[in-house]
Amino acid sequence: MKRTLLALALTAALPFAAQASELSYNYIEGGYSRVSGSPKVDGWGLKGSVALGSNFHAFGGYTQYDVSRSNIDIDYWNLGVGYNHSLGQNADLVARVAYQRAKVSGFSSLDGWFTEVGVRGMLTPNFEGYIFAGYENGDDIDSEFYGRVGAQYKFTPNFGLVADVKFVDGDQEYFIGPRISF
């Protein structure tokens, strides 16, 4: 009886174990965001992605920053598309392009675009990592190259904790928060 229950439990858990190691392009994440430097610039963000077939995805995000010791708020959002190509069972080559806009209270909006390419992969069944190199430009945004690195630890196949750091022009942008994959 105990062996039968154990065998049934293991059989039921196999699909979840397999899903935990797959890369998902369907997710929503939210959390704390901060830009390094002085004065303190921090806030909250909400990001997401939706798979468009097996090799394409749409993504976007919104972040609301507060600048300390001032009445300045920054509303930043982006919207784009990406292409993902399998490099093996646990890794993808990812290329993305997006429109971005920042509205600084009391000032005009800053419009631009970015593109990035990188690798995203499962390092263990519950730990994903990624690294990107990117370029951003626009009418109101200086052209800059940047690097971005991040990771996600999956507590379950559908719930994890993600952390991301973007290195641009001597500054860093940090993000940490929960991710729900579907």
UniProtKB/TrEMBL annotation:
Gene3D superfamilies: Porin. This is Ax21 family sulfation-dependent quorum factor. It comes from the Bacteria. Residues 13-103 form the Porin domain. One of its GO terms (molecular function) is porin activity. Residues 1-20 form the signal peptide. Keywords: Signal. GO terms for cellular component: membrane.
